[in-house]
Design goal:
The complex is a heterodimer of chains A (299) and B (266). Chain A has 299 residues and is α/β, with parallel strands linked by helices. Helix content of chain A is 32%, strand content 30%. Chain A has ten helices and 14 strands. Chain B has one domain. The longest helix of chain B is centred in the first third of the chain and has 35 residues, at 16-50. The chains are: A alpha/beta (299), B mainly alpha (266).
Chain lengths: 299, 266
């Protein structure tokens, strides 16, 4: 099984009439890898996932899972996939236990001891009707059904949506255990921090196009940080614009936001020439990441 | 042995309460109608026979007759009332079998499992067949019980054949609604298009005896092939049963082709 790539997407496009949801996407994920698929809402992430699972058909290109074609071998390949839908829908009248039994019977075999372990770790409510559960508790049932057959490839669309921080941590542990067991995981998200926490590589998608794939173990990839610096008095922005690897903008009169793409040493030396009141690191948003790639393209 | 976690069983199970209520209500009504035959049935039948209006006769059903238990049962139940009730149930199920799951998103749970789309559809169609069979069967039992209790002299075999025809009628409209939903991808459109067909088919069936130009249109009406009144009067036509079966096979085939080749959940 491990000889073939868990997932190969080759020149995949999906069109709806004149609208192109995904445009010529090519990527591969490796055995035992956690791959993050990052993009804003409407970027084409869910369309890609829905095509991998053969819910929709590709307009062009092909998708292979362990060497099996996503259209021709749709039934066979799903034996190897665990799937969590973004904003998961469950049968509202059923309990979690009934849903897990229902879905387990559609699979070949289920390790119920493992299911019990997942239920315990996620503290899931199995005996209440789904309609009475909170979003987070529904998400737990969704995660259990995705993991319960120990699939060779996990496809998770916004997996931590609705989970509290404690449960997010449990989820990260579950994902890392799967990785250690040689399974591959494909996580779609719009949360950069989450992706950075668990993924080995990340693909950035925007407006249906894959912009870049970065190796998160490579210290040069996605090497940029944002800082908010409050100076004692107003500083002229032009003093920083000539420094390579440094971008600045006004936050307010005496405070600037710096985006540092080069050496942190240059940044520190540049601001040290002025009296500083506060210095805070800012969370890097997905938008910031995309801006970096656009600027690289322009250059 | 039935797997209680199968798609088929799950579909039946989720509708068991409403089916039970329908069965209880229709059975009680059937027994009541049989009970009423001695007191008002004769009079109503005479009224039906004496009417000069072709229009009234057409709307009651071209083959409706009075004066006999078979005529009374056809007039009150099997002619129009039961087929319409059954059509409402099966159209609701047929359009929602895939449509409800598609709209709510639960269809993804099934499609992400290692089962084919045709297997999902087959289990849904089997559930439709069972749903369409339960009500006419229970009603048949109610007729047998009523005829024993109230000395209602009717040929039970004709009622049996009429029930079979009714089942085929119900399955056909359920399959038609399922087909319309899989083609249009919308449950509400599946229901409304099928309901429009039921309405149109009913008028084609009732009015063809009044309007010459409608005569050929009767062949497109499932009411014409079902024709409970005729069957109850001992004039079942095997050809009509066959046509309904062909209609079911045709709509199912279109549904399978359409569902296996289309994007879901959009």
């Amino acid at each position: 099984m491990s000889i073939k790539n868990p997932l190969s997407i080759i020149n995949f496009s999906k069109n709806y009439d004149k609208f192109t949801a995904v445009d010529n996407l090519t990527l591969e994920i490796n055995t035992g890898e956690i791959f993050g698929f990052l993009g804003p809402n409407g970027a084409g992430k869910s369309t890609t996932i829905r095509t991998i699972l053969n819910f929709i058909f590709p307009s062009n290109g092909s998708i292979n899972i362990f060497g099996l074609d996503s259209v021709q071998d749709a039934v066979q390949l799903k034996k190897h996939i665990g799937y969590l839908a973004g904003d998961i829908a469950l049968y509202e009248e059923m309990t979690g236990d009934q849903i897990l039994n229902y879905l387990a019977d559609l699979q070949e075999d289920t390790d119920w001891d493992y299911v019990k372990d997942l239920v315990k770790r996620l503290d899931a409510s199995l005996y209440q009707p789904i309609k009475t559960l909170s979003k987070g508790n529904k998400q737990k049932i969704g995660l259990i059904q995705a993991f319960m057959n120990k699939p060779n490839l996990l496809i998770l669309d916004e997996p931590t949506s609705g989970l509290d921080p404690l449960m997010k941590q449990v989820f990260y542990e579950m994902v890392l255990e799967m990785k250690q067991a040689g399974k591959s995981i494909f996580i779609s998200s719009h949360d950069l921090t989450e992706i950075q926490k668990v993924c080995d590589r990340v693909g950035f998608i925007r407006e249906g196009k894959l912009i870049a794939i970065e190796d998160l173990y490579d210290k040069n990839s996605m090497n940029f940080k944002k800082y908010k610096v409050q100076f004692e008095k107003k500083i002229n922005l032009k003093k920083f614009t000539i420094i390579e690897g440094l971008k600045s903008e006004y936050y307010n009169e005496d405070t600037l936001i710096f985006t540092v793409t080069g050496s942190i040493d240059i940044f520190i030396k540049a601001i040290a020439r002025y009296k500083i009141i506060t210095l805070d690191e800012q969370e890097t948003s997905l938008e910031d990441v995309f801006m970096q790639y656009y600027e690289k393209e322009v250059q | 042995m039935i797997n209680k976690n199968s798609i088929f069983f799950n579909n039946i199970n989720s509708r068991k309460k409403s089916l039970l209520y329908w069965c209880l209500a229709l059975s009680a009504l059937t027994i009541f109608i049989i009970y009423m035959y001695d007191s008002v049935g004769q009079e109503a039948s005479k009224l039906l026979e004496s009417t000069e209006s072709d229009g009234i006769k057409a709307f009651i059903g071209p083959d409706a007759q009075g004066g006999t238990p078979a005529g009374w049962l056809g007039f009150e139940l099997y002619g129009i009332f039961l087929p319409i009730c059954l059509a409402i149930i099966t159209i609701g199920y047929g359009a929602g079998a895939i449509g409800s799951e598609e709209e709510s998103g639960t269809l993804e749970l099934l499609l992400a499992s290692p089962i084919s789309r045709s297997k999902i559809l087959t289990e849904k169609v089997l559930a439709l067949i069972i749903i369409a069979t339960i009500i006419p069967s229970i009603n048949f039992v109610a007729v047998c019980l009523g005829s024993l209790l109230f000395n209602f002299k009717i040929a039970i075999f004709d009622v049996f054949l009429c029930s079979i025809s009714l089942i085929l009628f119900g399955i056909f409209f359920g399959c038609f609604a399922l087909m319309m939903q899989t083609i249009t991808k919308k449950r509400s459109l599946g229901i409304s298009l099928t309901a429009a067909y039921v309405g149109g088919a009913y008028f084609m069936y009732t009015l063809y005896s009044l309007l010459d130009w409608l005569e050929p249109m009767k062949f497109f009406s499932p009411f014409y092939y079902y024709d409970g009144n005729k069957i109850l009067q001992g004039a079942a036509d095997p050809f009509h049963f066959t046509i309904m079966l062909v209609g079911i096979i045709f709509t199912c085939s279109i549904t399978y082709i359409s569902f296996s080749k289309r994007d879901t959940g959009i």
